[in-house]
Design goal:
By secondary structure, this protein is mainly beta. Helix content is about 10%, strand content about 30%. The protein contains 2 helices and 8 strands; from the N terminus they run ββββββββαα. The chain has helices at about 130-135, 145-150, and strands spanning about 10-15, 30-35, 50-55, 70, 80, 95-105, 110-115, 120-130. β6 and β7 (about 110-115) form a beta hairpin. It is globular.
Length: about 160
């Protein structure tokens, strides 16, 4: 096993201290305060409507290798699947990635919408969303994913 060290480049601020499966992340606005040493690295990012935020789930319990399979969202009506077939934050390396809408950059602070991260979460990297490389056509997903998302009540606007 290779030891990998990562250093955060900033922190998330949004006032959300605990998450639930029904947390409306799509609507939540967050501020990402980037460390001063990386402020100039934000130059030109404001020309993008969306960015990827890579972050570290610093408050999750790491899974045991003895429990490689889980029920998605801890729902008994969903099948038992391998942990890597879920979006659970409980992973061997608890790294998260969210595509977010970039609302504004002011100094070293990004204001974004849709970031699935708690207040104080360390940010590891920021990458622009570029459709040519980020949109994947003709994808497939497990039947349980389609069934779950298609059976959920529509989101009220």
């Amino acid at each position: 096993m290779t030891l990998v060290q990562l250093k955060s480049i900033g922190l998330v601020h949004n006032g959300i201290t605990e998450a639930h499966y029904d947390t409306p992340w799509r609507d939540i606005e967050s501020a990402i305060v980037v460390d001063d040493e990386w402020r100039e690295a934000l130059e030109g990012l404001d020309e993008f409507s969306h960015v990827w935020i890579i972050f570290f789930f610093d408050r999750v319990t790491l899974p045991s290798p003895d429990a490689p399979r889980v029920r998605p969202m801890r729902r008994g009506d969903l099948p038992l699947v391998g942990r890597f077939a879920t979006r659970s934050p409980q992973r061997p390396n608890p790294i998260g990635i969210s595509p977010v809408e970039l609302l504004e950059i002011s100094g070293a602070t990004l204001r974004v919408r849709g970031l699935e991260a708690l207040d104080g979460t360390p940010v590891l990297d920021i990458k622009p969303y570029i459709a040519r490389g980020d949109v994947i056509e003709n994808t497939r997903a497990a039947a349980w994913v389609k069934d779950y998302w298609l059976t959920q009540p529509p989101k009220e606007e």
